[in-house]
Specification:
The complex is a heterodimer of chains A (515) and B (448). By secondary structure, chain A is α/β, with parallel strands linked by helices. Chain A has 17 helices and 24 strands. Chain A is 32% helix and 26% strand. Chain A has a 6-stranded mixed beta sheet, sandwiched between helices. A 6-stranded mixed beta sheet of chain A has the order 18-21-22-15-23-24, sandwiched between helices. Chain A has a 4-stranded antiparallel beta sheet with strand order 2-1-4-5, with helices on one face. In chain A, helix 4 packs across helix 5 and helix 14 runs parallel beside helix 15. The longest helix of chain A is centred in the middle third of the chain and has 16 residues. By secondary structure, chain B is an all-alpha fold. Chain B folds into 2 domains: 91 residues, no CATH class; 246 residues, ABC transporter involved in vitamin B12 uptake, BtuC. Chain B contains 19 helices and no strands. In chain B, helix 7 crosses helix 12 and helix 7 crosses helix 16. Chain B is globular, with a radius of gyration of 25 Å. The N terminus and C terminus of chain B are likely disordered. The chains are: A alpha/beta (515), B mainly alpha (448). The interface between A and B is large, with 81 and 56 residues.
């Protein structure tokens, strides 16, 4: 199917979400739609899928204009959509989910009613899944499936409705690296069979890897069509609208005294298994120690133990010589530790609270924020106003609830809160997960600044790019142990192998020693 | 650089992409295993729904319309349970006017009586102009305020823990705790006038606070579900009260029924509008408590902590708050408020302890907190409404033989309509009044 969008414009009040957008998707092509959160990608796709109607412009399929007033029309025209948030019924099986809304029945003569044809549904699922390499058990309950498989179910659903053009809205946002690779394989096989794909994302490396054509959208306008050979910097600059420095400039580390010293730390996870097994390392002032590792190898538990959110079973740690093992979180934070938790919405923010309240979350009971029991709301507001400016938090006002900020700006709120205290140690866990390029750049710059000012930084990330860009020393965690300590010029391949457990035989090098 | 062109009003709700201010980005879901968390997760979800309903609440419009709808349905019930009206419907087709007229007069008569009993009776006003009693004019209002007093206090005792994420069903038990201590100080101790009543009130606060603290302590230290604990404590308190009323220390001499001795005059709360009207200083205490609770929630570090814990305990912990201590403190304060309600009843109107002194305050308090939309002012207004319904109900029963139970039905209907805002919106054809959670769900569907 060849799809053309011509001059699509959509306004919401005075906001122009889409401004005369032209887009052509050739048959058998993967067309990437690249743009920051809020650039207008989703609105455009909602128009294409019949969820919203454009104010101006037209949609052409194979040269003839179409008019979608509801998703059903779009589906009938061969357009399928895989939403970022799956539209599946958790307690139904895969087969049941796939036929939902389009149930085929076996009818009895002319009675006009029938029974759900489960056998046929199962066969359909199997047929499509073998055809495109979408392995999935049609009888499995959706709620028991990992996210990556649930996504396959969504794709099968669209394919069974004879979609020849598939819209994938931020499909990799919820996937692990392995699942992402599987998805890419599926996308390639779909492309090979002549399907067109619209791939919405803000991740540059994915676009370069998968797309045939890249359309970059910024503030509702198409700002460029680029080939996948374009470099990271070119793509990012087009997307953000200015030159972006993906790896912050970093002078050589000026090391000071040891700030964080961890000795033989052992921590349990929620299920009582040993998640951190006798880990030891030091971080000096002015140094960023990056902890690389696949998610779930004890990094989360390590960070939580270091801020007193999880009991330490064995071993100890101290900050600037002061033993803080198993002390209250408040005491640890007050002794100069900043903490950016890995999940901002679950732990970093109270999304119902205003930006100002969130910025005061760990300081509300200290002067000048409060006198005795009374909060000083004026001080809170003034401080919030300054931090919003200083950290470039894009919000309507300091009274806006944090929930209506974009992911990047939510993260800036957390970072602003933690960095505007005087800290000697910053513990940042996944500080840029799910954040747009502009905010990543900003957060990275801030972390380097903190280090340059002489704080120690413990950076946990599953993104190798992030570790490579920021860390002065890299520790690799695997199954609860620090299996290797490397300098930042280590190759990606070696890091990848270490993260997969190749370094288990090697005992962690003594802390601080160059690898 | 903030986005320049955000619409000033909310003319259209953009369903997704809009520069700068976006719909909440939903984080990647946790692994599937966590989703199937069983009962714990269900309880959590349920708690979240209740929490949203109370704290985020409905719009004022929906609340008011729910009240109107309840009054209308209540009127129909009054009319169609009236033994005078029903036979007339036997002749509905021959004389429809008679049947409908009877129904109307039954319902309107009942509501008029209710108004006379709760706000003002026009006959007493004209009587007052002709040399009658002026206090009689204020009697209905006085009764409304008397009924509202314990509701305000007990309502606050439910609302405040709500803000901290706890569901305090234990109003009854804490009320009894306060009433028993305040009552005992009132009749068993001899003290000079002003000091006596102050000590008795303090005793009421302490008695309730202990009951509340125990719940908070169990929740914080053992993780015991406060809903179950408070419900069970209600039974303990009720039977403990019954037991105490049989003991020598409490029982009124020469009486065989379980009733305590009478509170000394020195320990009674002073009347506000002269001796014959029952409204007393307890109402002032209730208003004072409402102001204090409002201040705690909005302007104190303690309230900030409560609200953070209520909205996101994990974030509270990560920010260094002591969540367990928060649970204990909020239940302590809530218990004290409910205890004060008990003290206000025993020192202000009843003057002695009886086995049924706790009435339905503990449970009406939940309704009041729900209706009051999680604010102190809301609780006061809702309590005044319920106080008026109760005061009016007595008059209604006396004047029109409509059973006073209809008041409970109307209360229940209000709660029903409040709990189902889409129903009210459909009935009154309201649009665009979606509350938070629904709106978020809607945004999700649009693919935001």
């Amino acid at each position: 199917m060849k799809l053309e969008l011509r001059g699509i414009t959509k306004r919401f009040g005075s906001v122009v979400a889409n401004d005369h957008i032209d887009l052509t998707v050739e048959p058998g092509q993967i067309h990437a739609l690249l743009g920051e959160n809020g650039a207008g990608k989703s609105t455009l796709m909602n128009i294409l899928y019949g969820l919203t109607r454009p104010d101006e412009g037209e949609i052409l399929i194979d040269g003839s204009p179409v008019d979608f007033s509801r998703p059903k029309d779009a589906i009938a025209a061969g357009i399928g959509m895989v939403h970022q948030h799956f539209m599946l019924v958790p307690v139904f099986t895969v087969a049941e989910n796939v036929v939902l809304g389009d149930e085929r029945t076996r009818s009895f003569g002319r009675l006009g009613f029938g029974l759900l044809d489960r056998r046929r549904a199962r066969q359909d699922v199997l047929r499509v899944s073998t055809q495109f390499g979408l392995a999935v058990d049609p009888d499995a309950l959706v709620e028991n499936l990992p996210v990556g498989i649930q996504q396959r179910v969504e794709i099968i659903k669209a394919l069974l409705r004879d979609a020849t053009l598939l819209i994938l809205d931020e499909p990799t946002a919820v996937l692990t690296p392995g699942e992402t690779e599987d998805l890419f394989a599926v996308m390639r096989s779909l492309k090979a069979s002549g399907h067109s794909l619209v791939f919405i994302t803000h991740k540059l490396n994915e676009v370069q890897k998968m797309a045939d054509t890249i359309t970059v959208i910024r503030q509702g306008k198409v700002v460029g069509t680029m080939a996948p050979t374009a470099s990271d910097e070119e793509l990012a600059a087009r997307m953000v609208g200015r030159a972006v420095r993906l790896a912050p400039e970093k002078a050589a580390a000026k090391l000071g005294d040891v700030v964080l010293s961890v000795e033989g730390l052992t921590v349990l996870d929620d299920l009582g298994n040993t998640a951190v097994k006798g880990v030891s390392f030091d971080i000096k002032a002015g140094e960023i120690l990056g902890i690389a590792g696949v998610q779930g190898n004890g990094q989360t538990e390590l960070c939580e133990a270091l801020v007193g959110l999880r009991p330490v079973i064995d071993g100890r740690f101290s900050v600037r010589g002061r033993d803080l093992t198993n002390r209250a979180t408040r005491e640890i934070l007050h002794s100069g530790v900043g903490y950016v938790p890995e999940d901002r919405q679950a732990e970093g923010l109270v999304t119902e609270f205003t930006v100002a309240e969130n910025l005061a979350l760990d300081r509300y009971d200290q002067a000048p924020y409060s006198k005795g029991l009374a909060l000083d709301l004026d001080v809170m507001d003034t401080a919030a106003g300054e931090q919003v400016k200083q950290f470039d938090i894009r919000t309507e006002s300091i009274r806006t609830p944090a929930s209506s900020l974009s992911g990047g700006n939510q993260q800036k709120v957390v970072v602003a809160r933690e960095l505007s205290r005087t800290i000697g140690l910053l513990i940042a866990s996944q500080p840029t997960r799910g954040v747009d390029v502009g905010s990543i750049e900003f957060v990275h710059r801030r972390i380097v600044e903190v280090r340059n000012q002489g704080s120690a930084v413990l950076l946990v990330s599953t993104e190798l790019d992030e570790i490579a860009a920021l860390a002065d020393r890299i520790a690799v965690m695997y199954e609860g142990e620090v299996v290797a300590m490397r300098s930042p010029d280590v190759t990606r391949e070696e890091l990848g192998l270490l993260m997969a457990g190749a370094g288990t035989g090697e005992k962690a090098a003594p802390a601080g020693a160059p690898a | 650089m903030t986005p320049p062109d955000r619409p000033p009003g909310p003319p259209v709700e953009p369903p997704g992409d809009e520069p700068g201010v976006e719909p909440p980005e939903v984080e990647p879901p946790r692994p599937a295993g966590v989703e199937a968390g069983g009962i714990e997760a269900d309880a959590g979800r349920w708690r979240k729904v209740v929490f949203d309903a109370v704290v985020e609440g409905n719009s004022v419009t929906v609340t008011l319309l729910a009240f109107v709808a309840a009054i209308v349905v209540g009127g129909l019930l009054i009319a169609f349970t009236d033994p005078v009206v029903l036979p007339k419907f036997g002749h509905f087709f021959s004389a429809p006017g008679g049947a409908l007229g009877a129904a109307w007069s039954s319902a309107s008569g009942a509501y008029t009586a209710m108004f006379r009993g709760s706000i003002v009776d026009i006959h007493t006003v004209s009587a007052a102009f002709h040399g009658g009693s002026i206090t009689a004019v204020f009697e209905p209002l006085s009764e409304t305020l008397v009924n509202a007093t314990p509701l305000i206090l007990a309502g606050l005792a439910v609302m405040l823990p709500f803000r901290c994420g706890l569901f305090n069903i234990g109003g009854t038990g804490q009320f009894i705790g306060g009433a028993v201590v305040a009552g005992w100080i009132g009749f068993a101790v001899q003290l000079p006038p002003v000091i006596h009543v102050v000590v008795a009130i303090a005793g009421g606060l302490a008695g309730g606070a202990v009951c509340g603290w125990l719940v908070g302590f169990l929740r914080a230290r053992t993780g015991a579900n406060e809903v179950i604990v408070t419900i069970m404590f209600n039974y303990v308190a009720q039977f403990l009260l019954l037991y105490l009323l049989g003991t020598h220390a409490f029982r009124r001499p020469k009486r065989i029924d379980p009733i305590s001795r009478v509170v000394h005059g020195t320990a009674r709360l002073p009347h506000l509008l002269g001796g014959t009207l029952r409204v007393n200083f307890g109402f002032v205490l209730a208003i004072g408590a409402a102001v204090a609770v409002s201040w705690i929630i909005k302007r104190s570090t303690l309230g900030f902590e409560f609200r953070t814990i209520g909205a996101n305990p994990d974030a509270a912990r990560a920010a260094g708050m002591n969540v367990e201590r928060g649970y204990i403190v909020v239940m302590l304060v809530a218990g004290a408020l409910a205890g004060l309600a008990g003290a206000a009843v025993v020192l202000g109107t009843d003057y002695s302890l009886t086995p049924g002194i706790y009435g339905t305050y503990g449970f009406d308090a939940i309704t009041v907190a729900l209706l009051g939309r999680g604010t102190a002012l809301g609780v006061v207004l809702a309590s005044l409404l319920f106080g008026a319904l109760h005061a009016g109900g007595v008059q209604m029963q006396a004047a029109t033989q409509t059973p006073i139970d209809i008041v409970i039905v109307i209360q229940a209907l209000i709660v029903l309509f409040i709990a189902a805002p889409p129903l009210v919106r459909t009935m009154f054809r309201l649009r665009g009044q979606r509350s938070g959670p629904e709106r978020r769900a809607a945004l999700k569907v649009v693919g935001a």
